[in-house]
From TrEMBL:
This is XRE family transcriptional regulator. GO terms for molecular function: DNA binding. Residues 13-69 form the HTH cro/C1-type domain. It comes from Dyadobacter psychrotolerans. It comes from the Bacteria. InterPro entries: Cro/C1-type_HTH, Lambda_DNA-bd_dom_sf.
Amino acid sequence: MESQIELFIIEKVKAKRIELGLSQLALSLRMEMNDSFVSHVESPKKRAKYNINHINILAKVLNCSPKDFLPEFPF
């Protein structure tokens, strides 16, 4: 089960992905990850999560700041 901050980050990345019109597959490929990586992270049935390195890669790929995926205040 994901923690509050993990769920927050997953939802922020998903919202940005959808905003930019990217599929899960497209984002996985842009991150140079396995084809199903993003779908596994976004699925509540899988244990995959984004780590700090993923957040940095996502910021580069999605042309934003890593801070865009983090909450303003701790949970």
